[in-house]
Task: structure prediction
Amino acid sequence: MDQAVDRVDLPCAVGLREQDGGPVRIRSVSAAADPRYVDFEVDLQSLAGRVVTEGLPIVESADRGVLSVAGGDRRRRPSGAVGVPLAAGPRVFGVLIAFGEPPMGGAEAIGVLEPLAKAFVPFVVTALEADMAKRKAETDALTELPNRRGFDRALRRVGGGPAALVAIDIDHFKKVNDTYGHAAGDEALRLLGRLLLSALREGDVAARIGGEEFTVLLPGGDLRLAMEVAERLRVLVESRAFHAPGGERRLTISCGVSAFPYPTAHPENLVAAADAELYQAKRAGRNCVVAARPASPTAVPAGPRAKAVAAPGPPA
Result:
């Protein structure tokens, strides 16, 4: 990718598609590009998506979406771009993108990037195969969410930046398994996975970290946002049914919320703090959201079942 950066004097990225019809995700970015775009799922209507689906190079003006069409993403929105396909024979499996308006002009930039894209193909195919194996190892087979390993990697990507975390546990899940059988329990887990994905913004990470335990990572989020997200999820889960012997059944969840740098002062304590609040939510009767009380009297507005309580601090 360094060659592409040097040739067009713009930050670059590579997006890959594991299979025909599947999503296109950004797999690597150059040093000057926003690192938070790694693992970003590209909107297929955007420049990068159309390069892959149409198999043709595209130059995008500054006022059009490069990776996403809708607004609201917290990452820096690229302004203009040039994209060329990565292809092996008739199959287009990726895109090489230069972010910004090339000083040399769009047509000349395409002429520079296309030979590089062809030269990249053997290396990219190998990298794609390795990436698919890595993604499989980091994915929970039942829910298709990241597993604990995948979640840990997402957490490391946040680094020391602000972030919020929601720890989630299905209430009385053992009773679901014991009463309706493991097939019903699996259906309940899949339902929760789908609901988490449907309710989150691009860039947020929902993961199943074990058993009936899930987490939601909100990069750049704060305590207020995390409580709002957790309460929205709690209401959503309570309103949906899953299939079990004898008819449809409903779930409830308990949620614990933490955020860095406030009120959790150290990023390494983010998970432990959310787990501590989840324990308090269970003690409070389940089917509720609990977060540590901020020092400021202003408040984290709580929904009907959301609570801001003075819970024990996270372990050091």
About this structure: The longest strand covers residues 91-99. The radius of gyration is 22 Å.
